[in-house]
Batch of 3 targets.
Target 1
Amino acid sequence: MTHAPDVIFLGPSMRHEDARLILPDAIYLPPAAMGDVLGAAQRFRPHSISIVDGTFLSNMSVFHKEILYAIDLGIWVLGSSSMGALRAAECDDYGMIGIGEIYQKLVSGEIEDDDEVALTHADEAEGFKPLSDAFVTIRATLEGAHASGILNASEAEVLIAMQKVRYFPDRRLSSIPSDAREIGIDPDRVEVLRDWARHHVIDPKRDDALALLQAVAELPAGQVPREDRPGVVLSGVFSATLARDVVVATPEGNEVTFDRMRRYAALHEDDFESVMREARLTLALLTLGGQIGGAPTADELAQARVQVALRIGINVDELDDYFMSVDLDTRGIYALLAGEAMSLRLENSWLGRSRMGMISEQFMNALRLRNRYLEVKAAAAMQETAAKSVVFEPRPSYLALIYTHSALTDWVFPEKWDEYIDHHEFGSFAELSEGFLTSVKAHHAFFGTGVLQPDDDVAIIVSDDGPMMTRGR
């Protein structure tokens, strides 16, 4: 079994290159924005997701509920340093693991303001290089200068306060010397302080990122135990997020959301209208099916898996790999199968059943809407006409007709004949056998084929021995 990867959202708190020296097999991603945790959960099926850095100005911040949703999937979620520490302090009661000094200070109330970890930084091409300094770093560095005797307590307190009142993009260690001169510190001590701010930086965010990497390496090998998962309630807003805003990626690394894919298809894909209509019908069936019998049962979901595999054209045991390849997580797989299960439930309920073959009218309409009506009409009429020119004396047995039809076509023996006859509305086994007889006669008329004789020990068991339904000409 392939080991599930560890995913880490990391940016200015620590360089990706440095982190790989400690945890080389992890997947490192840029700072997390809203939807990125959901996307990582679907794309990588990870063992853990760690948030060190995240966005908050240029994009919406990572959503609390997506963190809990990932934990619900069994993924370990950790946070430290920056956005990760903030979210861990807010979500630790629900299973997120907080790491490091900043997280501990947020939990204790020693740090109350989100802006204390905020900074500006360059883009990914420049390695998310910081363009300002986080207040937690400035404060720790000035407190270190006090502890080393460079500043007295009052001076350190004033210099810290001067940085605190600044807008976070304007906070910089490089401005400490000018601040020191402004409050009257003598030039020789200012130079000592300048050297300290350059070469003795105390960076809690980096320290906490290092601690997180170590914590990831020490995580249990399996998933989060089921009893420790939060049990996320899918509100309307969050359900919409799952449906629209999850970021998925191509093998080439190009990213897009589900909503952007749908909008693209509306403008560029020829089959958009038919796919959209099927989507709307499935949504309606999910609602209606839930009112008739409640949620799908385990048996209905198992039947749905078989039908989905048939529709896609793969084996049932290949379905899970297919689902992973098309960006479905556990909830998404259930939603897809539930839609198919509800369709099957309604199709096979009294709502979808007909009497005396009246389903033929809707079936003809379905052929007309697919522009296949004339094609099927011509083929069926030709078969009927050809079959009338052939007389078998004596009439072949049911088994002989079935085996011959199967050998001449792609038709496959059903496992349960009663269910097959009922589902296809043949009315009775005798009615079905008439169809086999017509098929075998027509093949004989066209190609001169004979009749196969089955093995003596083969039998077909059906319980329906009632009369054929009345058929029109």
Target 2
Amino acid sequence: MEAIQQWVEASPYGRALGVRLEHVSEAGARLRLPYSDANSNPGQALHGGCAASLGAIGGQAVARAVLGADAAPFHTAQMQVAYLAAAIGEEVVAEAELLRKGKQMCFVSVDVSTPDGKPIARTVSTVRGRFGAAPAETYRSPGDHGDADPGVMGPHIGRVPFIGNRGIRVEHMTGGTSRLVMPVLETNTEHAGGIHEGAVLALLDTAGAMASWAESGPGRYKASTASMQIQNLAPAPKADLVAYGRCVQRDEEMFWSEVEVASQQDGRVCARGTVLYRILT
């Protein structure tokens, strides 16, 4: 428990969020995240990247307990997130449960809720232990069109507390496409030195949302991420990351956007996924 608690709470990203590990075993884990303005959207709503981060952290905590330290390094190869409701100005609790253990992989579900039991999010992840193997060399992203028009909304996105604390800035956000950059900040990293999976998830979520807004255009609308699917192809390096978002389908208030997250230095993709976003007019 001590080593896993160090990974959860003492990593710079974990400290920045304020997440606490209350229990971990081979059967499951319990995490608690007190409310903080630093983790919020406008209106004191918990940012979706925080809920997704709890899913990734909870999944890894259980996998580390089950597979043991010799299985390191770990990464969440795949995760699905369903956002069920908003947590407004209140702490949340994440209950992780082992679904199945393999030789190198663990399947873990995490339920995020308020202390009074209101469901906030549910994640299902596949966590892989690489048993000392070096990370795979991933493919290079083709990038995008190279335009740099942040649109009307782009310059204001960094004012959202959680996004601003990650250092995320919008380089482009028009015509159904987005490009966001997240710099190497200490508070975005983990013990191993690379960018924490939670910060990568937050960047991917935000890029998908911004691609949706780039398709719909700005307005005084109510919007939120409904769900997302993420594939971490390899642990993220300690490098500035760039996320390319592209809205591929719209059906009235629903938007589907594909996102790639890559190292800005060499273009190698570390994560990819699809964000389902809803904008109510």
Target 3
Amino acid sequence: MLALAAMFVQQSFATLGRSLPPILAPAIVADLGLDPAWLGVYIGISAAAALVFQLGCGSFILRYGALRFSQVALVLLALGLGLAAAGPMLFFLFSAILGGGGAATSTPASSHLLGRYVTPRQAPLIYSIKQTAVPAGLLAAGLLGPLMTAYWGWRGALVASALAALVFALMLQPLRAEFDSDRIPAKSFHLSDFLTAIQVVLGPGLRPLAFGCLMFNGLQSVFTTYFVLFLTHLGHGLAAAGALFSVAMVIAVPGRIFWGWLGAGRVEPRLLLGGLSLGMAGSAVLMPLVGPGWPLLGIGVIATGLSATAMSWHGVLLAETARLAPEGMHGHCTGGVLSFGQVGALVLPLVYAGILVTTGSHGLGFALCGAPGFAVGWWLLRGKR
């Protein structure tokens, strides 16, 4: 329970810090006079950094320990937020690299740590509870981000979040003796570790999960990056858009726990993931119907469908990845599968940005980024055994 609590808070901070720039994008874009499509470039750079960090973090987790690496992730995230607060475009580039990479390594580290304390049958539920930290962090970002911006400006909001991440990194230190007791100080990093992680996850067992993660994480990134901007484009205020986004994130908390409960021996995890893929695709293709005349309640119904699927698959997929991982390679395999997710987080926001620049339609961007979920769902359901 202590491991779960520590990793829950760590993951919450990582999610809050990584999602704040997109949540505050309307204020940042207005203040700096940027094109809204710039946001897709920022998210794409962040995802590219996350891909590299996740592919290569396995050896560092084994050498220094999962808890120490969690602290490092929080420090990198804080540095990224501080650089973004400085404002010039070059600083945003480094912010995306450090913040995105640091936040992304929090999941492999926490999965490695929890893998020592849970049984395979418990894993889907425990990992799902831990991953509710993601919607919890997004909820906090949606509520606190606009509030802090109103009082201190968007720069002050980023700095306050960076300081909070540093404080929690220090608070984790007393737990290191126990949680890093399995570290292997002689373990060293080699460039071949990148290839090893890719080879393992492209094996028959993990391959469908890797490509499923690519699509799931890509659509999640599109949703968390552009949803608030979409609502402000329709004429809703930043505070109202942030509040609706936060309400949608609330749905993901019981959603993740419920899917984890189902996956813990009640429904085959791959079958469950296939159903979630079809659900998120179906929700995304409804977004072009949303127009300026739509009430927030109607938009919230579609957002709830996306939140219950595109924001709620993580625990089941991570538990299944850990179950199929070779002994001692939880961090490597989790990082490898999630690196495919980062490919999706890199590509789909850029696709969305291209559609937005070309057509000016947010709804069409959601639909085209979500439609591949139908194919992924069919693949997972067809090969569920």
